[in-house]
Amino acid sequence: MTCPICKSSNTRYFANKDGYLFYRCASCKTLFISNMPSQKTLAAYYANQFSYTDGLINENIIRIRGKIILRKLHQLAPLARTLCDIGGGYGFFLDEAHKQGISAFGVEPSRQLVQYAFKEYAIKS
User: Fold this and answer.
1) For the chain, what percent of residues have pLDDT higher than 70?
2) Distance from C-alpha of 12 to C-alpha of 63, rounded to nearest angstrom
3) Are 35 and 2 in contact (CB under 8 A)?
4) How does pLDDT run across 41-69, given as a tens digit for each residue?
5) Mean pLDDT, the chain, as a whole number?
6) Which own/partner pairs from 28-33 qualify as long-range (CB within 8 Å, at least 24 positions apart)?
7) Are 112 and 52 in contact, with CB atoms under 8 Å apart?
8) Gene3D superfamilies per the record (predicted)?
9) Integer angstrom CA distances of residue 88 from 15, 21, 95, 114
10) Confidence of residue 93 (pLDDT cuts 50, 70, 90)
């Protein structure tokens, strides 16, 4: 199995979840699945797995968890000052990172949530 990020063949089986085989690259530490699902399959998965209203209801929990994660990240990489959040939702985690002086950006498939984050946090695209 070849890593989609660094192209290394030094990968190992990691787990099987919902029929997807996960591998970890020993070279760059990326965790990836062996066969990427189609866009249609991904859209159906996310539609069934997540409720965007839950994000607003759980804002305080997400922010507290974000602060804990940021502390752990600082312990692991104290000099790192840039962060990328994949699936950033409403942007609460990115907002917490910005409050700590971290240059943070995110990727979010929902246009609705991206627009919310832009409006709420004056983010520039």
Assistant:
1) 90
2) 33
3) no
4) 887 776 666 566 666 788 999 999 999 99
5) 87
6) 28/3, 30/3, 30/4, 30/5, 30/6, 32/3, 32/4, 32/5
7) yes
8) Vaccinia Virus protein VP39
9) 24, 24, 10, 9
10) very high
